[in-house]
Write a structure and sequence with these properties.
The protein contains 8 helices and 7 strands; from the N terminus they run βαβαβαβαβαβαααβ. By secondary structure, it is of the alpha/beta class. The chain starts with 6 loop residues before the first strand and ends in a 9-residue tail after the last strand.
Length: about 270
């Protein structure tokens, strides 16, 4: 098991990509702090920190579900302290928590909406690193994986705020890797392509019948993947496991895009 007895914090872990990451880490041998704001299911977005923690335990690993808003500094500090109290260490930090806005032109985005997405997608990543890194420095060991996006490289019409945040995460990853490499801490990012999650469905197609959703996503993958097939949460989770393992000990400051070759589709 590549990550046997490692301790990982995964933010935004109640569903979708975060759930996939948490379960892949557990299958690789890690104990997982399942962190998210979500403690109650929504009809169109099932999953909570408690349901994912139960799945982690079913894989034979320890789980600590914590309700955390990564945009709130005191909550992040509390998450880190509770992790130390429970597991005595933090080996892996996966900054997966994020949000998207409904598709709209930039001039239609309100200041409140802009502030909200920056608070979660960018400031939340900063706060988690700020309070986890001192513990990693003490142990001279750590793996940090940030969540970028294909949108941080290409951009998408109607998603300027999200794309701006993800482009910032890619550069943040580069700079932070330089800051902490002397302490044997690796910092990398994963850049997912179009992954079909409840969050994506809720933003784009929540009001559409299920059969129309299937058709739209099939067309999406045909148009944006060289393989013409779906990118899954498990694909992202497997990439995170690799970057968190010693197989990737000399990979640093990189963004690994998992998108089926999306940028090459138009060439």
């Amino acid at each position: 098991m590549k990550l046997k007895d490692k301790v990982a914090i995964v933010t935004g872990a109640s569903r979708g990509i975060g759930r996939g990451i948490a379960l892949c880490l557990a299958e690789a041998g890690a104990d997982v702090v399942v962190a998210s704001r979500t403690v109650e299911e929504k009809e169109y977005m099932p999953g909570t920190i408690h349901s994912v923690a139960k799945e982690v335990r079913a894989l034979g690993r320890r789980a600590l579900p914590l309700q955390v808003d990564v945009a709130q500094e005191e909550q992040v500090q509390d998450m880190v302290q509770k992790t130390i109290d429970e597991f005595e260490k933090i080996d892996i930090l996966v900054n997966n928590a994020g949000m998207v806005l409904a598709i709209k032109s930039l001039w239609e985005v309100t200041k409140e909406e802009w502030d909200a997405i920056v608070a979660v997608d960018l400031t939340g990543t900063f706060l988690c690193c700020k309070y986890v890194i001192p513990h990693m420095i003490k142990r001279e060991y750590g793996k940090i994986i940030n969540m970028g996006s294909i949108q941080g490289r290409q951009g998408l019409r109607g998603q300027v705020p999200y794309g701006a945040c993800k482009a910032a995460i890619h550069n943040y990853t580069l700079a932070l890797a330089k800051d902490v490499s002397m302490y044997n801490i690796n910092v990398n990012a994963v850049g997912p392509g179009a992954v079909r999650t409840y969050l994506v469905e809720s933003v784009f197609h929540m009001a559409m019948p299920e059969d129309q959703k299937d058709l739209i996503f099939d067309q999406l993958y045909q148009n944006y993947s060289l393989f013409g097939r779906e990118v899954t949460s498990e694909d992202i989770g497997n990439a995170v496991v690799f970057l968190a393992s010693e197989d990737a000990k000399n990979i640093n400051g990189q963004t690994l895009f998992i998108d089926g070759g999306q940028p090459l589709k138009g060439e």
